[in-house]
Specification:
Layout (H helix, E strand, L loop, with lengths): L4 E5 L4 H13 L4 E6 L19 E5 L5 H10 L2 E6 L6 H6 L2 H23 L9 E7 L24 H20 L3 E6 L2 E2 L8 H10 L4 E4 L9 E2 H14 L5 E4 L7 H15 L12 E4 L14 H7 L7 H14 L1 H8 L2 H12 L6 H4 L15
Parallel strand pairs: 1-2, 1-4, 2-3, 4-5, 5-6, 6-10, 7-9, 8-11
Length: 381
């Protein structure tokens, strides 16, 4: 990376905030501008205790706001853009796709246009610049059990509105590289987990519900497979791509593991049993509840990450068990962070909307139960 600022979009969210923290730690000369709309998923609490906060400036704003983005690029002499900002939750995209199209597609287009104007159209040599786009393995759709992992040339086949919107944004980024010569890189990463993940995604939701003695909702039969990666491993991969990645290239970033959702939830329960032996909810596995499946639920994701390993020497530092233990410990030590989100009316509304309509799959056998996820907690965090 060169002199000038790095613009991180979505830097108050789960992965973006971890990336801002890592960037400030690893590069003592970097200046970071963090543009985030602070949707339900973003929080300034995620940016507490940044190392050397004087080199970080937060801008509260929307990536769809063209004049604002243009002003940020010029005022801060932005030479690198790392684009995390997105609507990111598949279940929310099923409930209402429009915000996903707006932020993920129009927001990316707005940033690309602003970068093109600032970097390519001023008649001066732009010097080294980089637009890095953060994407997902979900653009490839569902794999069968014996399918090989997706590589960087596997055709896109998205299933959910979220995945379709990310696929569209990836295509736009590549189109700007081919058409206008914008210096871009992309990463497609597998499922992240770790500190500060919003507790409507599987792992933090299970931890929060388990602490409160509430049902742990497993969609379908729990046999869906994800390739889980600890969040700082993802952030290190993005840093490596910025430093040494080939302009124009895409890199797959994955953890190389293939547990089922049920396996992940059982491992979390075992860690919680170990950490909280006196909890009234031990064994936490008893809380596991199978609920109606997600429509269009992709059965399996898997990425071939050999390009980033061979070209850039990246590989994940965390094993799944070590990463899950670190994650549980972070949530246990940061009850205040969780409580603040749990108390928000819009969080409770989402829990009711998403889980209230999902019947416990065993209701037919034993009579109606209250909807999962919205029962009154048995104990506080
Ligand atoms: P997140 O939902 O936790 O955070 C998204 C952030 O973007 C929030 O801070 C939010 O306020 C901000 N944002 C949303 N709309 C915005 C807008 N219009 N303008 C400005 N800011 C806006 O998401 P995350 O899990 O941290 O994911 C970050 C990126 O990584 C996304 O692009 C996602 O597609 C990608 N990704 C995520 C995963 C994962 O497992 N979480 C895996 C692979 C790729
Ligand atoms: P999620 O964390 O929403 O990530 P993604 O859909 O992007 O992979 O879900 C991870 C997996 O866990 C996915 O297969 C859906 C499943 N899941 C449940 O079984 N129960 C839940 O309550 C949630 C939120 C997810």
């Amino acid at each position: 990376m060169t002199a000038g600022s790095v613009l991180v979009t979505g830097g108050a969210g789960f992965i973006g905030s971890a990336f801002v923290r890592l960037l400030l730690e690893r590069d003592p000369s970097v200046r970071v501008v963090n543009l985030d709309a602070l949707t339900y998923a973003g929080s300034l609490a995620n940016l507490a205790d940044l190392p050397d906060p004087g080199r970080h400036e937060f801008v509260h704003g929307d990536v769809c706001d063209g004049p604002l983005v243009t002003d940020v690029l010029r005022r801060h002499d932005v030479v690198t853009i790392v684009h995390f900002a997105a609507e990111s939750h598949v279940d929310r995209s099923i409930a209402g796709p429009a915000p996903f199209l707006r932020t993920n597609v129009i927001g990316t287009l707005t940033l690309l246009e602003a970068a093109r104007a600032a970097w390519l159209e001023e008649g001066v040599s732009p010097g080294p610049r980089r637009f890095h786009h953060v994407s997902t393995d979900e653009v490839f759709g569902s794999l069968r059990p014996d399918d090989p992992p997706c590589h960087e040339e596997t055709p896109y086949d998205p299933s959910s509105p979220y995945a379709a919107s990310k696929a569209a944004s990836d295509h736009l980024v590549r189109a700007y590289a081919r058409t206008y010569g914008l210096p871009v890189t992309l990463t497609n990463c597998s499922n992240n987990y770790g500190p500060r993940q919003f507790p409507e995604k599987l792992i933090p939701l299970v931890i929060l519900n388990a602490l409160e003695g509430r049902p742990l909702p497993i969609y379908g039969d729990g046999g869906n497979v994800r390739d889980w990666l600890f969040v700082t491993d993802h952030c290190e991969a993005v840093l490596e791509v910025l430093r040494r990645g080939r302009p124009g290239a895409t890199y797959h970033v994955g953890g190389g593991n293939q547990p089922t959702n049920l396996d992940v939830v059982r491992r979390l329960c075992a860690i919680l049993d170990d950490r909280l032996p006196r909890s009234p909810h031990v064994p936490h596995e008893r809380l596991i509840t199978f609920v109606e499946d997600r429509p269009g639920h992709d059965r399996r994701y898997a990425l071939d990450a050999s390009r980033i390993r061979d070209e850039l020497g990246w590989s994940p530092r965390h094993s799944l068990d070590g990463g899950l233990r670190a994650t549980v410990d972070w949530y246990l030590e940061n009850g205040g962070w969780l409580r603040e989100i749990r108390e928000r009316p819009e969080y409770r509304e989402w829990m009711t909307q998403n889980y209230g309509r999902r019947r416990d799959a065993r209701d037919d056998e034993r009579g109606a139960r209250p909807p999962v996820g919205v029962r009154e907690p048995a104990a506080g965090v």
